[in-house]
Design goal:
This protein is mainly beta and 58 residues long. It has one domain. It is 0% helix and 60% strand. It is built from no helices and 7 strands. The strands form 2 sheets. A 4-stranded parallel sheet has the order 1-3-5-7, with no helix packed on it. It has a 3-stranded parallel sheet with strand order 2-4-6, with no helix packed on it. It starts with a strand and ends with a strand.
């Protein structure tokens, strides 16, 4: 189970920081700092500066 899920229909602009997994299914613009894995679902819209120490899954 993901620590943070940004669902379809959700738009976030700004800075997101998480020490757990993040799943993006919606829209994110800004900065994403994650200590866990990042999953970007098909159809998601992402325009971020990404900082992560673990895996990315597209």
């Amino acid at each position: 189970m993901a620590g943070t899920i940004i669902g379809h229909g959700i738009t976030i602009e700004g800075e997101i920081t998480s020490d757990e997994e993040v799943v993006v299914a919606g829209t994110v613009r800004g900065k994403l700092s994650v200590e866990g894995s990042v999953t970007i679902d098909p159809g998601a819209r992402v325009a971020v500066r990404l900082e992560t120490e673990f895996e990315l899954d597209f």
